[in-house]
Amino acid sequence: MYLFYHQQTTCNLHICKHNNVGIFIIAVMNYPSFYFLTLMALVQSPSAPTHLLVTRAGPCSNSGKTTITVSELSLTMRTYDSLVSGVMNISEDLDNGWYIKATMQKCVDIRNIDTCDFFKSFSVVKSGCVDEDEMENVYSLLFHYSEPRLECPLQAGEYNILNYPLFTEDNYLAVYESKISTSVFGYTLRLDGFSEDHRKILCIEAYLQLVYMRIHEWVQTEDAPETTLGPNKEEEQSEEELI
Q1: CB 88 within 8 A of CB 67
Q2: pLDDT tens by residue, 13-64
Q3: Looking at the record, which segments are called Disordered (predicted)?
Q4: Taking the CB of residue 114, how many other CB atoms lie within 10 A of it?
Q5: SS3 category, 47
Q6: Do 25 and 170 contact (CB within 8 A), yes or no?
Q7: Other residues' Cβ atoms within 10 Å of the Cβ of residue 187
Q8: CA-wise closest residue to 39 among 17, 14, 71, 62
């Protein structure tokens, strides 16, 4: 996956850097309907570490009828990853060579799509089921979580994706609440898929919300206030004297 950060960004297959900021994407799935399922963005910055949290994934709201359709995907959050489940339906056999393009918008308030503006568009898959090396490895990973098992070339049928692991490094559900801040800023990611003869076969989208961590000074001090409900040291000493 290839990310972008303003005009001076330099990228290779998985890592993009912009000055002191690095954006790390772990392979957005190179398979039509679940291409984005392993999306993980980690923005590294010395002042405010940020992550992009997937808050919604599923079919495009205005995609019309396509050869490949997906249900609204369920996201089960865990400490170090999330589990994604859903249903994909392929209405006809598809030859190898399909391709996928992505469009991203940046949103002042991800809760209101009217605040979003165009950010970036790029090619994600150039020749599906024909790609080799890393692309092929990604296909194989998805196959293990589909029932019945997906194969190339894509065959018509209904496929269940069950508990596919989406690694997000830290989905912020297990860290201390005092260290968490959630911004309303975010991105939309839309993936449009096309057959080898350029027919539109797929449209899926995801909403990504910016989450960042603030380290409060009082959390790191030895004199931090007690957070448990048990007795403090003075109360314990008083009880011992009474005994």
Answers
A1: no
A2: 333 333 333 333 333 444 444 444 444 333 333 344 566 677 888 999 887 8
A3: 224-243
A4: 7
A5: coil
A6: no
A7: 19
A8: 14
